[in-house]
Amino acid sequence: MVGEELVGLTPEMIEASQAGMKAIGAAIAVGSTGLASAAAEMAIGSAAVGATAENKDVFGLVLLLTVIPETIVIFGLVVALLLIF
Fold first, then answer.
1. How far is the C-alpha of 33 from the C-alpha of 31, rounded, in Å?
2. Does residue 61 fall inside a structural domain?
3. How many alpha carbons fall within 13 Å on the CB side of residue 71?
């Protein structure tokens, strides 16, 4: 029957469990976006170094392109903050 496993739990224990799940969800949000951003920046950064070595005039453009994946981490941080608070 549904709910029988919750018989021995106090409301404080349930609240602590929910807080733990929120923390795990926030960690997954920030961690996964961080890993994805790192992978994207690795590929873009290596191409940017090669392009800059061939033509010094594209430095500003490739600098902008290497910063764009970092915005994904900001979105992950926003999701984590929404989960926690």
1. 6
2. yes
3. 5
Q: What are 61's two structure tokens?
A: 């453009």
Predicted local distance difference test score (pLDDT) of residue 9: 82
In a domain, 59, yes or no: yes
**DSSP class per residue in 14-69:** HHHHHHHHHHHHHHHHHHHHHHHHHHHHHHHHHHHHHHHHH-GGGHHHHHHHHHTT
Q: Is 6 a domain residue?
A: no
Query: What's the pTM value of the predicted model, to 2 decimals?
Result: 0.76
- State which residues form the domain around 77: 27-84
Residue 4, in any domain of the structure: no
- Could you report the per-residue pLDDT of 4-37, keeping only the tens digit for each? 666 678 889 889 999 999 999 999 999 999 999 9
SS3 80: helix
